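Record type: monomer structure entry
Structure origin: computed from sequence
Chain ID: A
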Amino acid sequence: MSRTEALAFFILVFLPVLAFWIAAVVHILTRRRDLSAKRKVLWIAGFFVAPTIALLAYLAFRPSRPRGRASGGEGSPARSALDEIAGLSTRHAAGEMSDEEYTRRTSEVFGLA
């Protein structure tokens, strides 16, 4: 991420989220007269704990290595499927394969057969 993208993220995403978070905490502390002091402390602790739990869950359950992108790089499953479809299409256009066989084989590539 470039420095400009990081700054844009900070200004457009992080600061507004932080502002809403601070507004929620201030609202709980000052405006919610129906909550006891104990409940206010629990709510604010929840604001700190929930993001921490979400971060730990992400770190625990994320994939160990990145998967191939949809556009596919060299050797990725998406690229090999596209290559196979292109080869089937070429063979079908050249008359080496019937319509039924072409349909069956492309369905197999897409996992529909």
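Annotation 1: The chain has four helices and no strands.
Annotation 2: Helices lie at 3-30, 37-61, 77-93, 99-109.
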